[in-house]
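so my prof wants the structure for this chain in the tokens format not the other one, which i didnt know existed until like an hour ago. anyway here's the sequence
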Amino acid sequence: MEYDQDKRKLLSALSHGSIFFSSLVLSIAIPIGILFTSDDPVVKESAKEAINFHLNVWVYEVIVGALVFLTLGLLGIILIPIFFLFHWVPPILAILQSLGNPNQSYRYPFIFRVV
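here's what i got, hopefully its the right format
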């Protein structure tokens, strides 16, 4: 079955880019909605990866927050810039890969896949 490449690019990029809308419910609702409404297997895989990335970001955010709190902010000097890079760089790479090669889903490194 042939799928529309432009639609595939748009929905895959939207799934990965939803993390930029907010860090709460809206950001994960977009890939969940795409996962349930799309019939394209590449778009579904991209939505699953985006959902897994969101869940991992939330878990790592809690861990980093707890460590910064427990060390009275001292670990924040090291952990917050690393978390910032982990939170922003992979989705940008995923969007670029989705737009450049729409036939392959981007796999985030260093995450646990729950969905």
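also thought this was worth mentioning. The chain has a mean pLDDT of 94.
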